[in-house]
Amino acid sequence: QGEMGIDGANGYGLMIYGEESKVQINHWDAIKDRQGVFETAKLISCISGRKDITISRDYPMGENWGQYAMVLCNPSLYDGLHMKESSDYSILSETERETIYNVELALEDAITLAAPGGYVAAVVPDLILYSVSTNIIKQYIKENTIIEAIISLPDYLLKPVNVSLIIMRKKVSEEEEAQEVFVGKLHSTVNPEEYDQLISAFKTWKGRM
Question: What is the rounded distance in angstroms from the CA atom of residue 201 to the CA atom of residue 54?
């Protein structure tokens, strides 16, 4: 719940239509850098009559960084749109690797956009979660957020890349530490009952934390 949300995910922003009553965001910024996606998203926005969604081609200027209660992104498909100059990325200054994945820069972007106590929901390749080679972004996530949930998504979704949904809450203070992480598995994207069961299990878990 909060004043602003930002949809930095690929696609047309359909997830932010019809979900406003659940997440209670007063205004959405939707970033669609590809021309065709941008035009279609604008058309959908006009047809819907929604006044609380702004469709843009680029990230907002610095005054909105760190102000979003909800940040959506799927950097597994990320192709190079960044908020900052390369020299400004914390993870680049702290690694000796010759190359770094775009997804790692995207995750730093998403966390930078979130307000303290705000949420980041990101679809990421399992490589990011489980490979030693990506320890730099995992350390950044650990220092700046509390991971609340990791949901494995169906194998066929972005075949041959296995992906998961990771839910992070940006820390309000450096002293915050994660106690438990909710871990789940979604076997199908077309079964509403499975969605409902997973959401119910997460709410139950969160309610006792």
Answer: 33
